[in-house]
Amino acid sequence: MGRRTRRHRRRFKGHCRLFITNGRFRESRGATSPILIWLNLESKAEVDNLFAEWKAAQARIVSELEDKPWKLREFIAADLDDNLIRVFYDFRRDL
Q: Does the structure show a pLDDT above 50 at 1?
């Protein structure tokens, strides 16, 4: 699924590669605040499946899975450094 190094963690899923640096690495480059990562998935089903997977793994869910009035199906999780990961699918194209 991925591999850990001293400065960052790599996660692979499908055709997506994501590199997230730890706080010490960001601070050494002057970036001290938490970050927000947006993951735009391919379908509602992918969002639902990832939500279920992360929930089962006891991830810290900040905002529960829901359909927003602006036509996004989304949830938000936080990592151990308080960075936010917004996972969503824009279902306007399905209407």
A: no
Phi, psi dihedral angles at 89 (to 5 degrees): -140, 130
pLDDT at 87 exceeding the cut of 70: yes
Please tell me the total number of residues recorded for the chain in this structure.
95
Give residue-wise pLDDT tens across range 5-48.
445 454 555 666 666 777 787 788 887 777 888 899 999 999 99
The amino acid at 12:
F
pLDDT at 68 over 50: yes
Burial degree of 27 (CB within 10 A; 0-12, 13-18, 19+): exposed
**Alpha-carbon distance 84 to 65, whole Å?**
14
Tell me the domains of the chain and their CATH numbers: 1-33 (no CATH), 34-95 (3.30.720.110)
Whether the Cβ atoms of residue 85 and residue 78 lie closer than 8 Å to each other: yes
